[in-house]
């Protein structure tokens, strides 16, 4: 079972947080801080595993990958394979890359909703549901289409940005 | 951003605007900006226009997940959004709900209908949204209400929906175990095929389920085996392996069949994750299969040779799983392990440290520890403490099994505590005391080490070592007879820097100083008995020299004057004991007492020193310190009359007073020399609770009386440490001794009387037990004899329980280590599985094996609970009736709930209630037949197996499963 997926930039700012257990915002913030505290002190060429039981409680493991300015973190328990989780991060990043064409931190910042679509396409309720990025992208695009279609019904966009982009 | 502009009020800002806005803020103004945005959102979210509302909600959800802003207040608005017909609103609403709702959200039940509607929607993405939401926040009620919808979705033609519906079953089973009856069959059917995403989802669900209760899924082993052999999907294979790790210990026959395919995967696959999972499976579950272990070891070796630190780490990790049973695997890779100790990766270092310690044995322990301690000196603080911690834990395993030379180990402990980064004071403390109590032969060395620690003023400044110092102080006080120089110890214990210590440890220092004082005076008296004349000479000398000073007999004046001439005296006395030096610690005791006779001056000096240091402490705010200081001061006053005030004593009086003082000293000394042994952790349990003792009486009345009374600070008492308990007892006896000498004997006799009368409630002092559990007869005049007895007992006991491990090639024989047989008396902790799991496994058991008796237990759940649940249940049954006709077996249960409940009670102890169960069972046999028939029909694949199982299932706890996989 996957407990949490986090994307944090190298300054410690969260770019995506997803907790599959119900936690209060204070607890989430605390966990995020502790995770970042551990990650930022690690050198680049060391292994991608971090002892997580002190942060997330018993039977929890943490793998992360460092891409450019971002840390991608997955927290999980003993029913997942460590290397498979690293692969999963790879799948996630590849999918992002395909969706945004050379994904950068800025894409992550401005595509909050799409980010969640992609992640929900991969992980469902803490379980890995899809690992083929083509399948994920297909679903995400369908969802985007649906959203666009439903939005176009409201003829006058009310938001400033929508208004500008006309 | 001075004030809300016209634009702000006319046009709503979208999420992108907010993100841009936050990015333009300085970190100082960010929170102001955000709170302004929240205000805006609060206004917008109340809008009747769903577009405005959902945009506001989206902004809030974003701020919640990225800036950790509370959004629980918006839960109702989220529900409004999901009821919108527009997909994008729905999506925003669902994301908000799954992010912010919890079981305690009051409006959570309101989403039940909307969820049902969306689960039935024709749009697969709407269904997916609802499923996703349910998987995150599904409560008992939601799961119960929506189980049937999920069940329908499990046969959806769309893979996208089907796999999610399967995934959600996990939540469903967890919250509402009765869902098993509806969904489980479908779940098992979905295992067919081997590479579809469906199988991946089902295997994932079974992996989670079997982690909680593997036994229930044992009958599915053939299915999993087929997947293990057929599947090409690494994700699926990894999950199947995880399932088998759980199942293998339950069914020994599984291993034989599994080893081959697992090794096959290990050889063929290129995926490291799968290889590692195979290795882990083999080294945890199939350790007795030599060839598989060899293959795993070879694969591990490959991992270790890789440059990737991840693989190296996992390789080392796998070896450490093997280490306890297959040490050869560690030894084979010894070079890599040692080398990894200096790796830059902290994970790798830790693993290799663990392995190095696993390799430690009697023969190489000293060398290993020496290398590691040197290494600890050079490494960073964290790892240094990891090293020290692992040395400590390895050495104390099984009552110091690996240690032959305790003198060496004790000095290693001393050395370790001097490492600058050492934070292991507490562990070292425990071991020092433990070794002191268990290993008699090491005490002289132990006292020497403790002395070195005590006199080192640098250690007092490190708060991590305070606990360690308290152990050193205790050791010095308890085993002072092995000390070469008690006076020096006393000075160390009373040095001014002890004020740096926390009060709880200071009290140990004071108590130890008191013990040393008693020891010194006692040996002085002993020696005086031999050489009375000599001492009286000394006394008369003193009389001459100080006659002018001591004119009045009043105690107060005396003490002042004593302090006055203290420095002068100290110069004299300090020089002679330091000359004491004997080679062997053990023989130093008699040497010290015989050759270097304690002079009168030195005793007086000790008394003065103590009085000087402790007088200010008698006014301490800490009760423990204050009490001990008062005890000791009282005692000093008692003895001092005789030592420092010989002038006013008349010759006739001298004998009598001296007798009183020496008797008091004798008693206290006897109390202190009482041997302390290790106490079994189960000792308390062996005391039967007296009949007249009411333990469960309601004490609320007492609260009213004691309400105003404040309890002492918790820090001042520590009842768990063995030596605290002891010192507390002694201080009581001291108090008695100082107040007047008569009652002290009285109290002893009272004690013995009490003991005689309530013999039953005391622990047996003989019967092969160490007398440490006894109430120490501190002032018992005959205790010197009993001490000897006790010591003999101890030695006897030690001889009996000691596993003689003397190695001929060792120069020193291993000293006796006292052990307690704890195994037999250890309370058996039988952890009852959680009710819910019980229900779940019962239900699954029922489905898989057609066990009627177990079914009753899981079905009784709703009837035990509220009636509303009953209703839900009934609805359920109707639905099933029309759909699947599966409820045949359930209906009789509604007719006689009482008998069902009684069956549920006897669930665990089926055998004892067998007769009763039979009566019910007779009537229900038909139903059971019918139901299992049904299942067989639906479940053709397992027909033969289930039929074979049916008769055995009467005893549900031991599902003896016929040979699988054949």
UniProtKB/TrEMBL annotation, chain A:
GO terms for biological process: Golgi to vacuole transport; intracellular protein transport. InterPro entries: AP_complex_ssu, AP_mu_sigma_su, APS3, Clathrin_sm-chain_CS, Longin-like_dom_sf. It is found in: Cytoplasmic vesicle membrane; Golgi apparatus. It is a peripheral membrane protein. It comes from the Eukaryota. PANTHER family: ADAPTOR COMPLEXES SMALL SUBUNIT FAMILY. Belongs to the adaptor complexes small subunit family. This is AP complex subunit sigma. It comes from Salix koriyanagi. The lineage of its organism: Eukaryota, Viridiplantae, Streptophyta, Embryophyta, Tracheophyta.
UniProtKB/TrEMBL annotation, chain B:
Residues 780-789 have a biased composition (Polar residues). Its main location: membrane. Residues 875-884 have a biased composition (Basic and acidic residues). It comes from the Eukaryota. GO terms for cellular component: AP-3 adaptor complex; endosome membrane; Golgi apparatus. Pfam families: Adaptin_N (PF01602). It is found in: Endomembrane system; Golgi apparatus. One of its GO terms (biological process) is protein targeting to vacuole. Adaptor protein complex 3 (AP-3) is a heterotetramer. This is AP-3 complex subunit delta.
